[in-house]
UniProtKB/TrEMBL annotation:
This is Gfo/Idh/MocA-like oxidoreductase C-terminal domain-containing protein. It comes from the Eukaryota. It comes from Skeletonema marinoi.
Length: 205
């Protein structure tokens, strides 16, 4: 879910908070069986659904809209090849938008109610995907504003940074709700038992 949080951030920013979260979290990869009483292996399959709650910041009024997400990083099985897909589809009453969910490598497609592409919106992705957002945070912290329109476009100027702590907290709470049944929630206090942490140990000789 280290990548899934970015999709949830985008949904929160555009439409509002994700509430009433239900999920299925699995480990489908075959890198060994869990021993009884051991910590769970890292998940590689997450399916969740919820709805958009009430807010006063949404770009599009969407309270009550359904949210469905699937993150599947599990390896393909022996009989079927797996197609890599990265899509965010926003469906309305008169059509839908289809774009990359976790990257900026695809154009935005506008589809009619029958799913036919009626317009493709091309754009030039920044050399560094996170640069515009990071720059907007730095500019706001430094009190910098850019008046020149050409320079605004060159720097992908966003004005006031859209990144707020409240948004990050809401996304973290959604992640907790998604993963709670698998990992057991934050009450587990994993930070108190370093022997169970995954990764490389660097020890003094």
């Amino acid at each position: 879910m280290d990548m899934g949080c970015h999709v949830l951030d985008r949904i929160d920013y555009l439409f509002g908070p994700v509430v009433d979260v239900k999920s299925e979290v699995l480990r489908k990869g075959g890198d060994g069986e869990e021993e009884e009483g051991s910590d769970p292996l890292v998940e590689d399959y997450v399916s969740m659904n919820g709805r958009i709650g009430q807010c006063d910041w949404a770009v599009i009024s969407s309270e009550g809209a359904i949210v469905e997400c699937l993150w599947d990083f599990s390896p393909p099985d022996k009989n079927n090849e797996k197609n890599d897909e990265d899509e965010l589809i926003i469906t309305g009453t008169h059509g839908s938008l289809r774009m990359a969910g976790m990257g900026a490598g695809l154009p935005i497609e506008v589809l009619d109610v029958d799913g036919n592409v009626i317009e493709t919106i091309e754009f030039e992705a920044p050399m560094h995907a996170a640069q515009p957002l990071i720059q907007s945070i730095v500019n706001e912290l430094r009190g910098v504003d850019i008046d020149d329109e050409e320079e605004r476009q060159q720097q992908h100027y966003l004005g006031k940074s859209p990144a707020r702590a409240e948004n990050a907290i809401r996304t973290s709470e959604v992640l907790d709700a998604i993963l709670n049944s698998y990992y057991g929630g934050r009450h587990d206090e994993f930070w108190t038992r370093s022997e169970s942490w995954p990764g490389l140990y660097i020890c003094d000789d």
